[in-house]
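for the writeup, i need someone to sanity check this before i put it in the appendix. the sequnce is what the collaborator sent (i think, or maybe the updated version? ugh). structure was predicted straight from it, no edits. if anything looks off just tell me and ill rerun, i have time this weekend
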Amino acid sequence: MTSPNLNLSANLVDVVRNAYEYLDDFRPDTKAVRYNYREATSEMTFLIEVPNGRKRKFGKVKIPLSEGYRVKGMFSLPDYNPVNTVHSIEDGFITFNPENLPNQTQYILTLNGDVKSETLKEIVHLKSPEDPTKTEETDSYWVHSAIKRPDVMKDVYDDMQVENVDISLQVGVQRCFSNGIPDDVLEIFDSTRDLLSASSNFDRNEVLRTARKRHEARRDISCSPAEAADLIRSLATADNLQDYIEVDDPFRERNINPGTPRQNIFPESISVDVTTDLNLDRQAANGDIVFQKKEYENLIKNRTDDELM
């Protein structure tokens, strides 16, 4: 018998195919795989038949073990009792001596390990747009994830799960702030930024001019520039934003991150992370991430009008 390629990548498709072709003595009847896309890990399960007879006495259970994978556990059926038999790992194979196994004929063998990012990209296709579909009220982002080559996967696996398939997209919010914040408040922020720039450049005349401009702008609001900036930043938190982000099934909202603007008081965009699960019955997931931008702009306008003017 020809040995399989020992330089197997961390790709469970290759592992199962090699195992299926190689195990002449004890061929797996059922195989399943579960990927955790977010954690870049996987778990593979074999159901191995080890009948009593000559093969059990002289044969070996020998499975190619891909780099990065290890034995998680082995159990005998039907009682699902742990099997603590000795196994060896050598030259890319894990080997069991069937004579050392309990007196059952069916066993579950589970392998787990880490999956390379290149492998995940070969397993799942992800798509998210850079530019949304716009209306006056909303920005809509269509997202898509799917198992690649599902027919091949069905041929290789009896069961396949891909959990925590995450998609991240950038949702623009700058215009909501620019339109919602009163001009007088924006002028204070602009003059503050100009004053800091002039100070860093040691331009005395420009410092005096921008400081005067900032002082004049402050007369039109009811609080200090720092308090105004704190209010604006509070409106850009995930707690406030999540009420204006709608996620279609089968996707679920995982995280909203407005970041920490360095040059500006408010962010240009926010990061929205969504997640879903895929399997051989639901091979693809499609949905819209909808930002209710007009409602969010109205929130900004109402809060700044009430608390700053």
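The chain has three domains: 12-115, 122-176+229-308, 183-224. Confidence is low (pLDDT under 50) at residues 1-10.
thx in advance!!
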